[in-house]
Amino acid sequence: MQLLSDLKPGDTLGRYEILMPVARGGMAAVWAARLVGSRGFQKIVAIKTMLPEFGDDPAFEAMFLDEARLASRIRHPHAVEIVELGDENGVLYIVMEWVDGDTISTLNKQVKSTGGVPLPILLRIASSICAGLHAAHELRDDDGKLVDLVHRDISPQNVMVSFDGIVTIVDFGVAKATGRLHETRVAGQLKGKIPYLSPEQLTSGKVDRRSDIFSLGVLLYTTLSGYHPFRGRSDAKTMENILRFAPVPLRELVPDVPFDLAVAIERALAKDPADRWNDCASFQRTIDQIAISLGIAVSDGDVGHFVRDTLGDIVSERRKKLATAIQLADSRMSSRGESRTASSVRGERRSKRAPAGNTPLPATFAGILPVSLDEPSSKPSSQSPPGSRALPVASAPPSLVTPAPRARQKWRRRVFLTLLVILLLLTGAAFAARAGLLPVPSEVQDVLRDGRLLLRGARDLLRGVLERLSALLAD
User: Fold this and answer.
1) Where are the domains of the chain?
2) Among residues 164, 123, 168, which one has the least CA distance to residue 306?
């Protein structure tokens, strides 16, 4: 049985081959992986697995399953796409889209010494976060009823910006919804990052979409000023600040922040949910109006250009690591292919040349993806790749296949027919020479002068050939 602690590059989870580790959080790890298809196709994905210490905890397993079930229903460019949920030998995993970028947390660290994220860029990012959150908050069930989904862990670590400038909200691991199967407070532990929790989360009060708005307010305040509005010397002090104290006014820290933006963020940070924005759509409209008032149009491409310039070294290093991981995976794949015996290769070729009628063979991953979580052996495996469906390959109907004995009989007919033609030509030439119709050199005339013996032999031979040919045709 594959253990979570044993996962490493080269292992497979379902149809996916692990390439390299990417990140590790409090409850889960994220890996870069790939799905390989025919004709050189491959798709890079992110795979999330629970950490080994939580692998046998039913509470965390339920939370993990809930994340996949809830997040997979969200369809929005600014919310991470869930590709599938899998279970490989007891290892639960979530396959997500690969975001070629980094987190707001990494971005803030890189720009801290250079004055922070430019305001127009930040407003574009903030607007995208609002759009993604609003889509999650508006998620409905099959009957069209709101499921009251709340992310509950909005923080710089859970908002990514791609190198193309696309903002993506990730990690719905502690999300709350009416249809959730498991509560997000387990064994008395708060779920989420304490510095970004809302007052109602800390007091176990009613949590709705306005809790995410509070967390977003903390994120924007921190990104604009470089200071956290509530962080104390300890988690206990941070929680006390969130519950009891108002943050330092944003414009006292950053005088250049537009007044309307400072007011909008302070409204998001209100202790009482009733004093905050009602939804992220309202918050987004205000942010967009402030961006328009600056007179600087910013696109996703501009955001991507800024991210690439800021995280250039990180971009190069990560892409280099991913390229190296892919090369190693290709090498492993080649070694597996070379270990196949010649007979198995010939068998595969014969099966590919003998489909039923003109029906093309179905595409499979056989021989492309690793078929086992164990180390590759020298013998080809007859099993299908884990998690994939073995597709049947139809054989040609018997009526279209020529048996081997018939093939040999056909070859014999051609030989006898050729000999028959030669004998007929020789016989005709002999008759023509005897009748004087065919000029014959003097040296040969003595031999042909008495042609009875030659004709008798040719006749007997011809009779034998005809009898043999009749017997073959009768078969």
Assistant:
1) 101-318, 404-474
2) 164
Please state whether the predicted TM-score (pTM) of the whole model is above 0.90. no
3-state secondary structure the chain: CCCHHHCCCCCEECCEEEEEEEEECCCEEEEEEEEECCCCCEEEEEEEEECHHHCCCHHHHHHHHHHHHHHCCCCCCCECCEEEEEEECCEEEEEEECCCEEEHHHHHHHHHHHCCCCHHHHHHHHHHHHHHHHHHHCCECCCCCECCCECCCCCHHHEEEECCCCEEECCCCCCECCCCCCCCCECCECCCCHHHCCHHHHCCCCCCHHHHHHHHHHHHHHHHHCCCCCCCCCHHHHHHHHHHCCCCCHHHHCCCCCHHHHHHHHHHCCCCHHHCCCCHHHHHHHHHHHHHHCCCCCCHHHHHHHHHHHCHHHHHHHHHHHHHHHHHHHHHHHHHHHCCCHHHHHHHHHHHHCCCCCCCCCCCCCCCCCCCCCCCCCCCCCCCCCCCCCCCCCCCCHHHCCCHHHHHHHHHHHHHHHHHHHHHHHHHHHHHHHCCCCCCCHHHHHHHHCCHHHHHHHHHHHHHHHHHHHHHHHC
Average pLDDT over residues 461-474: 73
pLDDT band for position 242 (cuts 50, 70, 90): very high
What digits encode the pLDDT tens for the residues 246-280?
Answer: 999 999 999 999 999 999 999 999 999 999 999 99
Specify the CATH number of the domain 101-318: 1.10.510.10
Active site residue 153: yes
* pLDDT category of residue 370 using cuts at 50, 70 and 90: very low
The one catalytic residue among 11, 66, 153, 212:
153
d(CA 317, CA 115): 24
pLDDT (mean) for 59-76: 79
Residue from 242, 125, 265, 244 nearest 192 by CA = 242
pLDDT of residue 418: 81
Amino acid at 287: I
Residue 157 has pLDDT above 60, yes or no: yes
The token pair at 438 is: 């065919």
